[in-house]
Amino acid sequence: MRERSLSSRTAHTVRIVRTGSSGALVRIVQRPDGTLVAVKTARNPRVPAIQQARARDTIAPYFGARLPEVLFAGHHHGSDTLITRCPSVTTLADAALRPGPTTQAAAIWTEVTEALCQVWLQSARPGFEPALATRKHTLRLERGRHGLHHAAHHLRIPIDGQHHIIVNGTDHGSLDRMLHRLAALRTPAIRVACHGDPQPRNILLDHAGQWHLVDWEWSGHHQDWRMMTSHLVGWWYVESLLAGTHGRITPTRSALALSYSSTPPAVLSRWTAPAVRAFRRMSRPAELEEDFGALAVHTAMLLFREIPKVIVEGRHHLFAPLLGEAARILDSAYSDRPHPLLEAFTHPQQTEGSLG
Length: 356
Description:
alpha+beta; Aminoglycoside 3'-phosphotransferase, Chain: A, domain 2; six-stranded antiparallel sheet; four-stranded mixed sheet; 15 strands; globular
């Protein structure tokens, strides 16, 4: 994320944000009357602006005024453009990650998570068709697979499906096995409506302490709630790895040896606890084991898909912890010892910590 100030006779740009996978540029502009608008532009968007506006409409019955109004959606000066009202320049991520007390941010995150879960319960309908899913797991996995090989090629690391992933001395099986496990996802019993990327950078906080959901590219009413839950817990873990982890890769003829140390997940519990409660409300006893396995798959996917992004940014030291933790989380779905990040989802007792 980068920011800068620009000005003209008619408006003043107060923040510029480069969004994640879509590569879109978002300018937050203050108009002469003091109001803010967000101008999102992209040359080749994965989801066109008009479709994003329609996606917003699918969840509007559940979130109402929490979704800023769309002012324009279409092509403008050769770019795909979405213009919306903007209640604030401050995201929940800003409030949670900055130095100092984060009690208010944690309370808002809890409120957001509870609201999302309530929408899942309200909108739940029997049957889930992967081909109709708003966010398709198979496409995400294919992009992740391609991104991993692109990252390895960039680092000149020889890698194929037979290479074993060795994490701090422990063999987690071959890359082919890892990819097979990522693909072996059973469908949920229900489909739900949700903002498709529910994470703190997509939540704006206004001066009155109210929260608003933005970036509706993947919003829709045919969602896997377990994938959505993975965002509620996985985002915090990814951020902790990006902020404080350094690793090393030692390739051999038959393996990738990854070495690193990471932040104990227990310190994130104040942020992940709301997701644990949501998971418990959504999963039925007979489906708990299967839902936990799906949660592990989706959480591992979040780390897996972060790899090409950090390589493009030149943060090569993050390759090892992202791939290693994805392998460890995925393995936890096949053992009686869950990864510490997900332990509370099977054993709800947990301690309060803070992101740091």
